[in-house]
Amino acid sequence: MTKKLFFRNFSSIYLFLILLTIGIKFPVKNSLSSLSVLVIIISFLHHIVSFLFSNKKFNKKVLIYNLIFSLLILFYTLIAILNDKLAYPTYPFIIIFFQWSFFLIISNLNYDSIKRTFITFIILNFGFYLIQIVGALFGSESLLKLDFILAEKSGIEFVSVFPRASGVITEPSHLSYVILPIIIISLYNFKDYFLNSVLKKFVMFFYFFTFSIISYFQLTLAYIIYSVRKFNLIKTIKFSLITIIIIFLFTNFDVFSNRINGLNNVVAGDETKESSVLSLQSNLLVMVESIKIHPFFGGGITSHRSTYDDFIGSLFPQFTEGGLLGLNQNDAGSIYILILSEFGLFGFICFIFFIFSSFLRFYKNLKINIVPYAFTLTLFLLGFRYGNIASFYVLFYLQLTFLGLAHDNYLKNIKCSIPAQL
């Protein structure tokens, strides 16, 4: 086994372990909330050692992207300090630590090993979901909550007799963030990243059982973007039939209808007590107040929580005693709300420009860049209902975008260096 293959195999193992332990509690009380944090720390130490002994020359472009990102985080930390809004002093350094940990992991991987690791994790989680179904049928709380693997389950929601799929991740919509990139890759049927028809159906089937409105919305957007490039009548008919079934579910099961009704109430100017809708509404209004005070650079990183505490009482005086407020105040429930609140218009414009420019570069040569394209598109889509920057979904997917940009640039340089054939 070559040294390169050795480090690639170890990096794949660590990536799988990080995925597997995202929703598993650390077995010692009053310690780390998730075992994945410990795995990331061990992984970081391992890859530092591999870096020192392998003499690996990392792509300079990826290094530059990461340095720029770290400097931006430190810049917005300084803004928060100047505004006296730094709610979590350690948070910026956690972001930077996770960022460089994922950079070290991804520097040893190729696109195919990343795809295989994600598929293996999805299959394993489906096994855990089957265990949850057995637990639901036989009334076994331990199986339903996956207590035997220390999964962090605060509560299980049901649609009819089915528990919502989440596996070890604990949150159905978060599970969909892992499945969605594989679905996007499977849509395009490129030979190098081909998924057989049985595996495609299985992945879609599992995604469906998350019973998550935001997940269905994200998949719909991904399919619309796919259709713009490559319209397929059979696939469109199948997708339309699935959409009809989902609409039926929206109107006939409380887990969907309550949220739709809550959203309709907000749009009509009425109140809602539906937690998911109220979470977005409250954080959106707090973000508006933050923009009024700090329009260009925002309040600085972690400032949203302080701004939330300052304004939430006056924005929702009727709910201050009911325990409904405080939802997602740390992460705003959306990357876009969070960035506007903490990074201001400048940060928001930079982020949107980066995502769309990367997306368009990958889109021009999709056969080569399908994997970073899928993860960049997922990063864009998950931001509608996910706001924790210091997380696997944001920082690992960001590293894949960086890697894709560097790889695309490398291929262009090779092409330019080849003399024209006369």
Structure overview:
A hairpin with a 2-residue loop joins strand 1 and strand 2 (162-163). The chain is 69% helix and 1% strand. A two-stranded antiparallel sheet has the order 1-2. The protein has 17 helices and two strands. The radius of gyration is 22 Å and the shape is globular. It has a domain at 3-254. The protein has 422 residues and is an all-alpha fold.
What order do the helices and strands come in, and which of them pair?
Layout: H1 3-20, H2 35-54, H3 60-82, H4 91-106, H5 111-138, H6 141-144, E1 158-159, E2 162-163, H7 172-188, H8 197-208, H9 213-229, H10 233-252, H11 254-267, H12 275-293, H13 303-315, H14 335-342, H15 344-364, H16 366-382, H17 392-417
Antiparallel strand pairs: 1-2
Strand content: under 5%
**Count of DSSP H/I helices:** 17
Record the strand order, biggest sheet: 1-2
Structural class: mainly alpha
Molecular shape: globular
Termini Cα gap: 43 Å
Helix content: 55-70%
| Rg on CA atoms, Å | 22 Å
Q: Summarize the main sheet.
A: 2 strands, antiparallel
The count of β-strands is 2
Enumerate the spans where pLDDT stays under 50 for 5 or more consecutive residues.
Answer: 417-422
Helix and strand pattern? HHHHHHEEHHHHHHHHHHH
* Oligomer status: single chain
* Mean pLDDT figure: 84
Characterize this entry briefly.
By secondary structure, the chain is mostly helical. Helix content is 69%, strand content 1%. The chain has a domain at 3-254.
